[in-house]
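Below is one record:
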Amino acid sequence: MGALDGSFESLPRAETCRRIDFDWVEVREATRFGGGRLLLVSGIKPWADLRVTLEPLSCREMPDFRVIEVVGRLAASGLRALVDFSVALPLESVQGRMGIEIVGATKSERRVLNLTSGAGPGD
């Protein structure tokens, strides 16, 4: 199969990454780097060598709430240790008509964003 054949969904799943849970979500106005909104997510990861990122799901049309997954990628052998993590994502081009939905392994949270301030109800 060539690189342009088939659909994304037909590709094999990676074994090194999974959704992981989070404990805290905040949307802030960034004071540096040109301003704009910034999504901050934190929690505790179960492996020291787990790299945590925020990954927006691709979408063809703008949804009401744009889904952003909290993803952990195991970089090495999986050294067991409870370690705090904190990750950030600029929201300038990542939002739905009403806001965003942060999705972890066992829970999700929505944030309503309006046009004039960084966060809506629920913060």
Notes: The two ends are 47 Å apart (CA to CA).
